[in-house]
Protein backbone atom coordinates (compact mmCIF):
# COMPACT_ATOMS: atom_id res chain seq x y z
CA UNK A 1 0.00 0.00 0.00
CA UNK A 2 2.84 2.37 0.93
CA UNK A 3 4.56 1.65 -2.38
CA UNK A 4 1.35 2.44 -4.27
CA UNK A 5 1.01 5.74 -2.44
CA UNK A 6 4.63 6.56 -3.23
CA UNK A 7 4.01 5.80 -6.89
CA UNK A 8 0.96 8.05 -6.95
CA UNK A 9 2.90 10.86 -5.29
CA UNK A 10 5.73 10.45 -7.76
CA UNK A 11 3.31 10.59 -10.66
CA UNK A 12 1.69 13.75 -9.29
CA UNK A 13 5.12 15.33 -8.90
CA UNK A 14 5.98 14.57 -12.51
CA UNK A 15 2.67 16.04 -13.69
CA UNK A 16 3.27 19.14 -11.58
CA UNK A 17 6.75 19.66 -12.99
CA UNK A 18 5.62 19.10 -16.56
CA UNK A 19 2.96 21.74 -16.14
CA UNK A 20 5.58 24.37 -15.43
CA UNK A 21 8.57 23.18 -17.43
CA UNK A 22 8.09 23.50 -21.18
CA UNK A 23 11.68 23.25 -22.41
CA UNK A 24 15.27 23.14 -21.27
CA UNK A 25 15.65 26.90 -21.32
CA UNK A 26 12.64 27.44 -19.09
CA UNK A 27 14.14 25.01 -16.52
CA UNK A 28 16.80 27.53 -15.56
CA UNK A 29 14.72 30.70 -15.63
CA UNK A 30 13.48 32.32 -12.46
CA UNK A 31 9.76 33.02 -12.57
CA UNK A 32 8.16 36.07 -11.02
CA UNK A 33 4.50 37.00 -10.91
CA UNK A 34 3.32 40.36 -12.32
CA UNK A 35 -0.16 41.44 -11.35
CA UNK A 36 -2.61 42.98 -13.79
CA UNK A 37 -5.44 45.01 -12.29
CA UNK A 38 -7.95 46.20 -14.86
CA UNK A 39 -11.67 46.41 -15.61
CA UNK A 40 -13.48 43.45 -17.10
CA UNK A 41 -15.26 43.74 -20.48
CA UNK A 42 -18.55 43.96 -18.55
CA UNK A 43 -17.58 47.06 -16.59
CA UNK A 44 -18.17 50.78 -17.14
CA UNK A 45 -15.24 50.71 -19.58
CA UNK A 46 -16.19 49.78 -23.17
CA UNK A 47 -15.73 46.05 -23.70
CA UNK A 48 -13.56 46.62 -26.79
CA UNK A 49 -11.17 48.77 -24.75
CA UNK A 50 -11.03 46.30 -21.84
CA UNK A 51 -10.29 43.47 -24.31
CA UNK A 52 -7.58 45.49 -26.03
CA UNK A 53 -5.96 46.24 -22.67
CA UNK A 54 -5.95 42.53 -21.76
CA UNK A 55 -4.42 41.54 -25.07
CA UNK A 56 -1.80 44.30 -24.84
CA UNK A 57 -0.73 43.07 -21.40
CA UNK A 58 -0.39 39.48 -22.63
CA UNK A 59 1.43 40.55 -25.80
CA UNK A 60 3.92 42.59 -23.76
CA UNK A 61 4.65 39.64 -21.47
CA UNK A 62 5.11 37.16 -24.31
CA UNK A 63 7.34 39.44 -26.38
CA UNK A 64 9.57 40.42 -23.46
CA UNK A 65 9.72 36.87 -22.08
CA UNK A 66 10.93 35.64 -25.48
CA UNK A 67 13.97 37.90 -25.31
CA UNK A 68 17.28 36.70 -23.89
CA UNK A 69 16.64 36.91 -20.15
CA UNK A 70 17.40 34.65 -17.19
CA UNK A 71 13.91 35.20 -15.83
CA UNK A 72 10.32 35.37 -16.99
CA UNK A 73 7.19 37.10 -15.73
CA UNK A 74 3.83 35.38 -15.58
CA UNK A 75 0.46 37.06 -15.44
CA UNK A 76 -1.62 37.35 -12.28
CA UNK A 77 -4.84 39.10 -13.35
CA UNK A 78 -7.69 40.40 -11.20
CA UNK A 79 -10.74 42.46 -12.17
CA UNK A 80 -10.93 45.82 -10.42
CA UNK A 81 -13.66 47.44 -12.53
CA UNK A 82 -13.68 51.18 -11.78
CA UNK A 83 -14.72 50.74 -8.18
CA UNK A 84 -13.01 51.39 -4.83
CA UNK A 85 -14.19 48.20 -3.15
CA UNK A 86 -13.43 46.02 -6.17
CA UNK A 87 -9.94 47.51 -6.35
CA UNK A 88 -9.30 46.72 -2.70
CA UNK A 89 -10.67 43.17 -2.97
CA UNK A 90 -8.65 42.42 -6.11
CA UNK A 91 -5.44 43.70 -4.53
CA UNK A 92 -6.05 41.63 -1.37
CA UNK A 93 -6.54 38.48 -3.45
CA UNK A 94 -3.40 39.20 -5.43
CA UNK A 95 -1.06 39.61 -2.44
CA UNK A 96 -2.48 36.51 -0.72
CA UNK A 97 -0.92 34.11 -3.23
CA UNK A 98 2.80 33.57 -2.63
CA UNK A 99 3.96 31.36 -5.54
CA UNK A 100 5.54 32.50 -7.76
CA UNK A 101 6.82 35.59 -5.97
CA UNK A 102 4.79 38.72 -6.74
CA UNK A 103 6.95 41.67 -7.75
CA UNK A 104 4.21 44.26 -8.24
CA UNK A 105 1.33 45.02 -10.56
CA UNK A 106 0.31 46.96 -13.64
CA UNK A 107 -2.86 48.99 -13.12
CA UNK A 108 -5.51 49.66 -12.08
CA UNK A 109 -6.83 51.62 -15.02
CA UNK A 110 -9.34 53.73 -13.05
CA UNK A 111 -8.46 56.18 -10.31
CA UNK A 112 -11.06 54.95 -7.79
CA UNK A 113 -9.77 51.37 -7.94
CA UNK A 114 -6.16 52.58 -8.03
CA UNK A 115 -6.54 54.40 -4.73
CA UNK A 116 -7.82 51.41 -2.77
CA UNK A 117 -5.46 48.95 -4.48
CA UNK A 118 -2.47 51.19 -3.76
CA UNK A 119 -3.37 51.38 -0.08
CA UNK A 120 -3.74 47.59 0.09
CA UNK A 121 -0.43 47.05 -1.71
CA UNK A 122 1.31 49.54 0.56
CA UNK A 123 0.79 47.33 3.61
CA UNK A 124 2.79 44.57 1.85
CA UNK A 125 5.33 46.94 0.30
CA UNK A 126 4.34 46.24 -3.31
CA UNK A 127 4.26 48.79 -6.12
CA UNK A 128 1.61 49.68 -8.66
CA UNK A 129 2.40 51.12 -12.08
CA UNK A 130 -0.82 52.35 -13.64
CA UNK A 131 -1.31 53.05 -17.32
CA UNK A 132 -4.53 55.09 -17.17
CA UNK A 133 -5.36 56.29 -13.62
CA UNK A 134 -4.85 60.03 -13.88
CA UNK A 135 -6.43 61.59 -10.76
CA UNK A 136 -4.32 64.32 -9.22
CA UNK A 137 -5.05 62.84 -5.77
CA UNK A 138 -2.85 59.87 -6.62
CA UNK A 139 0.16 62.21 -6.72
CA UNK A 140 -0.02 62.56 -2.94
CA UNK A 141 3.09 60.70 -1.77
CA UNK A 142 1.96 60.84 1.86
CA UNK A 143 -1.00 58.60 1.05
CA UNK A 144 0.08 56.74 -2.09
CA UNK A 145 3.90 56.49 -1.91
CA UNK A 146 3.91 53.16 -3.78
CA UNK A 147 1.80 54.35 -6.70
CA UNK A 148 3.43 55.20 -10.04
CA UNK A 149 2.10 55.73 -13.55
CA UNK A 150 3.23 55.91 -17.13
CA UNK A 151 0.65 58.65 -17.78
CA UNK A 152 0.58 62.29 -16.82
CA UNK A 153 -1.68 63.46 -14.01
CA UNK A 154 -4.89 65.33 -14.66
CA UNK A 155 -3.44 68.77 -14.11
CA UNK A 156 -1.81 68.38 -17.52
CA UNK A 157 -5.05 67.17 -19.06
CA UNK A 158 -6.79 70.20 -17.55
CA UNK A 159 -4.11 72.40 -19.12
CA UNK A 160 -4.76 70.73 -22.49
CA UNK A 161 -8.48 71.39 -22.14
CA UNK A 162 -7.77 75.00 -21.22
CA UNK A 163 -5.55 75.33 -24.30
CA UNK A 164 -8.45 74.03 -26.39
CA UNK A 165 -10.81 76.54 -24.80
CA UNK A 166 -8.46 79.35 -25.76
CA UNK A 167 -7.88 78.06 -29.27
CA UNK A 168 -11.57 77.55 -29.93
CA UNK A 169 -12.50 80.95 -28.55
CA UNK A 170 -14.84 79.49 -25.92
CA UNK A 171 -16.04 82.07 -23.39
CA UNK A 172 -18.73 80.15 -21.48
CA UNK A 173 -18.54 76.63 -20.06
CA UNK A 174 -20.88 74.32 -18.17
CA UNK A 175 -18.76 71.67 -16.42
CA UNK A 176 -20.37 68.33 -15.45
CA UNK A 177 -18.93 65.70 -13.11
CA UNK A 178 -20.10 62.85 -10.86
CA UNK A 179 -19.22 61.50 -7.41
CA UNK A 180 -16.19 59.48 -8.44
CA UNK A 181 -12.60 60.31 -7.47
CA UNK A 182 -11.44 60.62 -11.07
CA UNK A 183 -14.37 62.85 -11.97
CA UNK A 184 -14.22 65.09 -8.90
CA UNK A 185 -10.46 65.56 -9.05
CA UNK A 186 -10.42 66.29 -12.78
CA UNK A 187 -13.37 68.67 -12.55
CA UNK A 188 -11.54 70.62 -9.86
CA UNK A 189 -8.43 70.90 -12.03
CA UNK A 190 -10.45 71.92 -15.09
CA UNK A 191 -12.38 74.52 -13.15
CA UNK A 192 -9.19 76.05 -11.73
CA UNK A 193 -7.47 76.14 -15.12
CA UNK A 194 -10.27 77.03 -17.52
CA UNK A 195 -11.75 79.75 -15.31
CA UNK A 196 -8.79 81.94 -16.25
CA UNK A 197 -10.10 82.05 -19.82
CA UNK A 198 -13.86 81.50 -19.65
CA UNK A 199 -16.84 81.76 -17.33
CA UNK A 200 -17.33 78.33 -15.75
CA UNK A 201 -20.48 76.94 -14.14
CA UNK A 202 -19.79 73.61 -12.41
CA UNK A 203 -22.38 70.95 -11.48
CA UNK A 204 -22.15 67.56 -9.82
CA UNK A 205 -24.71 65.18 -11.32
CA UNK A 206 -26.86 63.00 -9.07
CA UNK A 207 -27.55 59.33 -9.72
CA UNK A 208 -30.91 58.63 -11.36
CA UNK A 209 -33.16 55.60 -11.61
CA UNK A 210 -31.49 52.93 -13.77
CA UNK A 211 -28.80 55.43 -14.78
CA UNK A 212 -25.60 56.97 -13.52
CA UNK A 213 -27.12 60.44 -13.98
CA UNK A 214 -30.39 62.09 -12.97
CA UNK A 215 -32.10 63.16 -16.19
CA UNK A 216 -34.39 65.65 -14.41
CA UNK A 217 -31.45 67.44 -12.84
CA UNK A 218 -29.55 67.30 -16.13
CA UNK A 219 -32.49 68.85 -17.94
CA UNK A 220 -32.59 71.79 -15.54
CA UNK A 221 -28.86 72.35 -16.02
CA UNK A 222 -29.01 72.14 -19.80
CA UNK A 223 -31.99 74.51 -19.91
CA UNK A 224 -29.66 77.26 -18.74
CA UNK A 225 -26.93 76.55 -21.31
CA UNK A 226 -26.57 79.41 -23.76
CA UNK A 227 -26.20 78.97 -27.52
CA UNK A 228 -22.56 80.02 -27.35
CA UNK A 229 -21.70 77.74 -24.40
CA UNK A 230 -19.82 74.42 -24.37
CA UNK A 231 -20.68 71.55 -22.01
CA UNK A 232 -17.46 69.98 -20.70
CA UNK A 233 -17.85 66.47 -19.26
CA UNK A 234 -15.25 65.12 -16.80
CA UNK A 235 -16.64 61.59 -16.56
CA UNK A 236 -16.02 57.97 -17.54
CA UNK A 237 -17.48 56.40 -20.74
CA UNK A 238 -20.57 54.96 -19.01
CA UNK A 239 -21.55 58.30 -17.51
CA UNK A 240 -20.89 60.03 -20.83
CA UNK A 241 -23.20 57.60 -22.60
CA UNK A 242 -25.92 58.18 -19.97
CA UNK A 243 -25.55 61.96 -20.22
CA UNK A 244 -25.84 61.86 -23.99
CA UNK A 245 -28.81 59.47 -23.85
CA UNK A 246 -30.65 61.72 -21.40
CA UNK A 247 -29.74 64.82 -23.40
CA UNK A 248 -31.20 63.28 -26.54
CA UNK A 249 -34.47 62.45 -24.77
CA UNK A 250 -34.53 66.07 -23.62
CA UNK A 251 -33.83 67.29 -27.16
CA UNK A 252 -30.59 68.85 -25.95
CA UNK A 253 -28.02 66.79 -27.78
CA UNK A 254 -27.47 68.41 -31.15
CA UNK A 255 -27.29 72.03 -32.27
CA UNK A 256 -26.94 74.42 -30.46
CA UNK A 257 -25.55 72.08 -27.79
CA UNK A 258 -21.93 71.03 -28.12
CA UNK A 259 -20.20 68.62 -25.70
CA UNK A 260 -16.49 68.51 -24.93
CA UNK A 261 -15.16 65.35 -23.25
CA UNK A 262 -12.22 64.43 -21.04
CA UNK A 263 -10.07 61.36 -21.69
CA UNK A 264 -12.73 59.28 -19.95
CA UNK A 265 -15.35 60.46 -22.42
CA UNK A 266 -13.14 59.89 -25.46
CA UNK A 267 -12.63 56.30 -24.29
CA UNK A 268 -16.24 55.80 -25.39
CA UNK A 269 -16.33 53.44 -28.36
CA UNK A 270 -19.06 54.14 -30.93
CA UNK A 271 -18.81 50.60 -32.33
CA UNK A 272 -18.66 48.84 -28.97
CA UNK A 273 -20.89 45.77 -28.79
CA UNK A 274 -22.58 47.13 -25.68
CA UNK A 275 -23.80 50.17 -27.61
CA UNK A 276 -27.14 49.12 -29.01
CA UNK A 277 -28.44 52.50 -30.13
CA UNK A 278 -26.98 53.41 -33.53
CA UNK A 279 -29.32 56.40 -33.76
CA UNK A 280 -27.70 57.90 -30.67
CA UNK A 281 -24.23 57.23 -32.04
CA UNK A 282 -25.24 58.88 -35.28
CA UNK A 283 -26.47 61.95 -33.39
CA UNK A 284 -23.14 62.21 -31.59
CA UNK A 285 -21.07 62.71 -34.73
CA UNK A 286 -18.93 65.81 -34.20
CA UNK A 287 -18.74 65.81 -30.40
CA UNK A 288 -15.20 66.67 -29.38
CA UNK A 289 -12.74 66.07 -26.56
CA UNK A 290 -9.15 65.37 -25.58
CA UNK A 291 -7.44 61.99 -25.71
CA UNK A 292 -3.97 60.81 -24.73
CA UNK A 293 -1.41 60.99 -27.49
CA UNK A 294 -0.81 57.37 -28.40
CA UNK A 295 1.16 57.75 -31.60
CA UNK A 296 0.64 55.44 -34.55
CA UNK A 297 1.22 51.73 -34.96
CA UNK A 298 2.94 52.05 -38.31
CA UNK A 299 5.53 54.66 -37.37
CA UNK A 300 6.51 53.60 -33.85
CA UNK A 301 9.90 51.89 -34.03
CA UNK A 302 10.09 51.47 -30.25
CA UNK A 303 6.86 49.52 -30.27
CA UNK A 304 6.88 47.74 -33.61
CA UNK A 305 7.85 44.37 -32.08
CA UNK A 306 4.74 44.35 -29.93
CA UNK A 307 2.30 45.29 -32.68
CA UNK A 308 3.87 42.89 -35.18
CA UNK A 309 3.64 40.03 -32.70
CA UNK A 310 0.08 41.01 -31.80
CA UNK A 311 -0.98 40.98 -35.42
CA UNK A 312 0.85 37.72 -36.19
CA UNK A 313 -0.78 35.98 -33.22
CA UNK A 314 -4.17 37.36 -34.23
CA UNK A 315 -5.02 38.05 -30.61
CA UNK A 316 -8.39 39.64 -29.87
CA UNK A 317 -8.53 43.41 -29.96
CA UNK A 318 -5.68 44.16 -32.31
CA UNK A 319 -5.45 47.98 -32.10
CA UNK A 320 -8.58 49.63 -33.41
CA UNK A 321 -9.40 46.63 -35.57
CA UNK A 322 -7.20 47.49 -38.53
CA UNK A 323 -6.77 51.21 -38.00
CA UNK A 324 -3.32 52.62 -37.44
CA UNK A 325 -3.88 53.76 -33.85
CA UNK A 326 -4.51 52.01 -30.58
CA UNK A 327 -7.40 52.71 -28.28
CA UNK A 328 -6.89 54.84 -25.16
CA UNK A 329 -3.74 54.23 -23.11
CA UNK A 330 -2.67 50.98 -24.82
CA UNK A 331 0.90 52.27 -25.43
CA UNK A 332 1.08 53.39 -21.79
CA UNK A 333 0.00 49.90 -20.69
CA UNK A 334 2.75 48.21 -22.70
CA UNK A 335 5.21 50.68 -21.21
CA UNK A 336 3.99 49.87 -17.68
CA UNK A 337 4.85 46.21 -18.34
CA UNK A 338 8.20 47.22 -19.84
CA UNK A 339 8.95 49.25 -16.71
CA UNK A 340 9.16 46.12 -14.56
CA UNK A 341 11.42 44.35 -17.06
CA UNK A 342 13.74 47.36 -17.25
CA UNK A 343 13.96 47.53 -13.45
CA UNK A 344 14.72 43.81 -13.11
CA UNK A 345 17.32 44.00 -15.90
CA UNK A 346 18.97 46.93 -14.14
CA UNK A 347 18.93 45.17 -10.76
CA UNK A 348 20.52 42.05 -12.19
CA UNK A 349 23.23 44.09 -13.92
CA UNK A 350 23.95 45.76 -10.57
CA UNK A 351 24.02 42.27 -8.95
CA UNK A 352 21.10 43.25 -6.74
CA UNK A 353 18.37 40.78 -5.74
CA UNK A 354 14.96 41.13 -7.35
CA UNK A 355 12.82 42.01 -4.35
CA UNK A 356 9.72 44.11 -3.90
CA UNK A 357 11.76 46.59 -1.82
CA UNK A 358 14.42 47.01 -4.51
CA UNK A 359 11.73 47.50 -7.17
CA UNK A 360 10.08 50.08 -4.91
CA UNK A 361 13.40 51.90 -4.45
CA UNK A 362 14.08 51.90 -8.18
CA UNK A 363 10.73 53.48 -8.97
CA UNK A 364 10.99 56.21 -6.35
CA UNK A 365 14.57 57.01 -7.37
CA UNK A 366 16.21 56.05 -4.08
CA UNK A 367 18.02 52.89 -5.19
CA UNK A 368 19.63 51.14 -8.14
CA UNK A 369 17.61 50.04 -11.11
CA UNK A 370 15.93 53.39 -11.79
CA UNK A 371 13.96 52.97 -15.04
CA UNK A 372 14.20 55.29 -18.00
CA UNK A 373 13.67 54.00 -21.52
CA UNK A 374 12.22 54.76 -24.92
CA UNK A 375 8.82 53.10 -24.95
CA UNK A 376 5.64 52.93 -26.98
CA UNK A 377 4.47 56.26 -25.56
CA UNK A 378 7.79 58.10 -25.72
CA UNK A 379 10.51 58.53 -23.11
CA UNK A 380 9.35 56.81 -19.93
CA UNK A 381 10.64 57.92 -16.54
CA UNK A 382 9.06 58.76 -13.21
CA UNK A 383 8.99 61.88 -11.08
CA UNK A 384 9.94 60.71 -7.55
CA UNK A 385 8.07 63.65 -6.03
CA UNK A 386 4.71 62.65 -7.50
CA UNK A 387 5.19 59.13 -8.86
CA UNK A 388 3.69 60.32 -12.13
CA UNK A 389 5.34 60.28 -15.52
CA UNK A 390 8.14 62.81 -15.60
CA UNK A 391 7.49 65.92 -17.65
CA UNK A 392 11.21 66.66 -17.59
CA UNK A 393 11.90 63.86 -20.09
CA UNK A 394 8.61 63.78 -22.02
CA UNK A 395 6.41 66.73 -22.91
CA UNK A 396 2.74 66.01 -22.06
CA UNK A 397 0.88 65.42 -25.29
CA UNK A 398 -2.81 65.12 -26.05
CA UNK A 399 -4.97 64.94 -29.15
CA UNK A 400 -8.00 67.08 -29.84
CA UNK A 401 -10.46 64.60 -31.32
CA UNK A 402 -13.93 64.52 -32.86
CA UNK A 403 -16.32 61.57 -32.81
CA UNK A 404 -17.16 59.75 -36.04
CA UNK A 405 -19.36 56.72 -36.56
CA UNK A 406 -16.41 54.38 -35.92
CA UNK A 407 -13.76 56.15 -33.87
CA UNK A 408 -12.45 59.44 -32.50
CA UNK A 409 -10.69 61.25 -35.31
CA UNK A 410 -7.70 63.45 -34.55
CA UNK A 411 -8.35 67.09 -35.33
CA UNK A 412 -5.31 68.66 -33.69
CA UNK A 413 -2.39 68.06 -31.31
CA UNK A 414 -1.86 69.74 -27.95
CA UNK A 415 1.70 70.18 -26.70
CA UNK A 416 3.12 72.71 -24.26
CA UNK A 417 -0.44 74.02 -23.76
CA UNK A 418 -0.64 74.89 -27.45
CA UNK A 419 -3.09 73.47 -29.96
CA UNK A 420 -1.38 72.74 -33.25
CA UNK A 421 -2.54 71.71 -36.73
CA UNK A 422 -6.20 72.24 -35.89
CA UNK A 423 -8.60 71.12 -38.60
CA UNK A 424 -12.15 72.17 -39.38
CA UNK A 425 -14.73 70.90 -36.88
CA UNK A 426 -18.38 70.14 -37.70
CA UNK A 427 -20.80 70.85 -34.88
CA UNK A 428 -23.35 68.06 -34.23
CA UNK A 429 -26.64 68.99 -35.85
CA UNK A 430 -25.16 72.20 -37.23
CA UNK A 431 -27.04 71.62 -40.47
CA UNK A 432 -30.04 72.96 -38.57
CA UNK A 433 -28.29 76.11 -37.39
CA UNK A 434 -27.38 79.39 -39.11
CA UNK A 435 -24.11 79.72 -40.98
CA UNK A 436 -23.27 76.17 -39.99
CA UNK A 437 -21.78 74.45 -43.02
CA UNK A 438 -18.67 74.26 -40.87
CA UNK A 439 -17.28 75.91 -37.77
CA UNK A 440 -13.95 77.66 -38.20
CA UNK A 441 -11.46 79.01 -38.70
CA UNK A 442 -11.46 82.31 -36.76
CA UNK A 443 -13.75 82.87 -33.75
CA UNK A 444 -13.50 86.62 -34.26
CA UNK A 445 -15.21 86.19 -37.65
CA UNK A 446 -18.19 84.20 -36.35
CA UNK A 447 -21.74 85.46 -36.33
CA UNK A 448 -23.19 85.97 -32.85
CA UNK A 449 -25.76 83.34 -33.80
CA UNK A 450 -23.06 80.73 -34.30
CA UNK A 451 -21.85 78.55 -31.44
CA UNK A 452 -18.31 78.70 -30.14
CA UNK A 453 -15.98 79.40 -33.00
CA UNK A 454 -13.14 77.07 -33.87
CA UNK A 455 -9.78 78.41 -34.95
CA UNK A 456 -8.44 76.35 -37.82
CA UNK A 457 -7.24 76.45 -41.36
CA UNK A 458 -5.17 78.68 -43.50
CA UNK A 459 -5.21 82.42 -44.16
CA UNK A 460 -7.27 81.86 -47.29
CA UNK A 461 -9.97 80.09 -45.28
CA UNK A 462 -9.93 82.89 -42.72
CA UNK A 463 -10.51 85.49 -45.42
CA UNK A 464 -13.31 83.42 -46.92
CA UNK A 465 -14.98 83.11 -43.56
CA UNK A 466 -14.63 86.83 -42.90
CA UNK A 467 -16.32 87.58 -46.19
CA UNK A 468 -19.18 85.16 -45.56
CA UNK A 469 -19.89 85.78 -41.90
CA UNK A 470 -19.14 89.46 -41.49
CA UNK A 471 -18.82 91.31 -38.20
CA UNK A 472 -16.71 89.97 -35.39
CA UNK A 473 -17.69 89.35 -31.77
CA UNK A 474 -16.15 87.19 -29.14
CA UNK A 475 -18.47 84.42 -28.07
CA UNK A 476 -19.52 84.22 -24.58
CA UNK A 477 -19.86 81.69 -24.34
CA UNK A 478 -19.02 65.84 -2.94
CA UNK A 479 -19.06 61.62 -0.09
CA UNK A 480 -18.74 59.33 -3.19
CA UNK A 481 -21.37 56.76 -4.28
CA UNK A 482 -18.99 53.85 -3.98
CA UNK A 483 -18.02 53.11 -0.37
CA UNK A 484 -14.50 53.76 0.73
CA UNK A 485 -12.62 51.22 2.79
CA UNK A 486 -13.09 51.23 6.55
CA UNK A 487 -9.73 52.88 7.12
CA UNK A 488 -9.91 55.48 4.36
CA UNK A 489 -12.19 58.41 3.58
CA UNK A 490 -12.40 61.12 0.98
CA UNK A 491 -12.18 63.80 3.66
CA UNK A 492 -8.78 62.49 4.80
CA UNK A 493 -7.43 62.51 1.27
CA UNK A 494 -8.71 66.02 0.59
CA UNK A 495 -7.37 67.31 3.92
CA UNK A 496 -3.95 65.91 3.09
CA UNK A 497 -3.99 67.50 -0.36
CA UNK A 498 -4.89 70.89 1.12
CA UNK A 499 -1.95 70.92 3.55
- What is the CATH class of the largest domain? Alpha Beta
Helix content: 25-40%
How many strand units? 15
Number of helices: 15
Q: How far do the termini sit from each other?
A: 71 Å
| CATH-defined fold name of the largest domain | Rossmann fold
What spatial form do the alpha-carbon principal axes imply? globular
Task: Provide the residue-averaged pLDDT.
Answer: 83
Structural class assignment: alpha/beta
Cα Rg:
24 Å
CATH superfamily of the largest domain: Response regulator
**Tally of distinct domains:** 2
- Known CATH architecture of the largest domain: 3-Layer(aba) Sandwich
Strand content of the residues, in percent?
15-25%
Output the strand order for the largest sheet: 7-6-8-9-10-13-14-15
| Elements, N to C (H/E) | HHEHEHEHEEHEHEHEHEHEHHHEEEEEHH
Q: Catalogue the unreliable spans.
A: 1-26, 434-491
For the report, how would you describe the main beta sheet? Answer: 8 strands, mixed
Amino acid sequence: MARKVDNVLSLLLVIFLCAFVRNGEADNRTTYRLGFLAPSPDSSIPSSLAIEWRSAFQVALEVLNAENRTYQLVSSPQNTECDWQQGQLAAEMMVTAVVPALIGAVGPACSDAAMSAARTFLYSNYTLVSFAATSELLSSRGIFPNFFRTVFSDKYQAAAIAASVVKLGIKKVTLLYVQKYYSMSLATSINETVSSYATVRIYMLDVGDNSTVNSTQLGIILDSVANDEFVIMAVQPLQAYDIWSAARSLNKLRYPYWYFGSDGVTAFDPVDTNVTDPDLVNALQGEIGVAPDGGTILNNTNCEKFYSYWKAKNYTGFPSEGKNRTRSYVPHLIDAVQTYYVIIDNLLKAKMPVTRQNIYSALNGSGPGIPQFEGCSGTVSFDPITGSRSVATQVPGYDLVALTSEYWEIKGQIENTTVQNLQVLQQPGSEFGPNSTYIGPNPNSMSSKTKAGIIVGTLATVLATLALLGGAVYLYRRRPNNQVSRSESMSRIIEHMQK
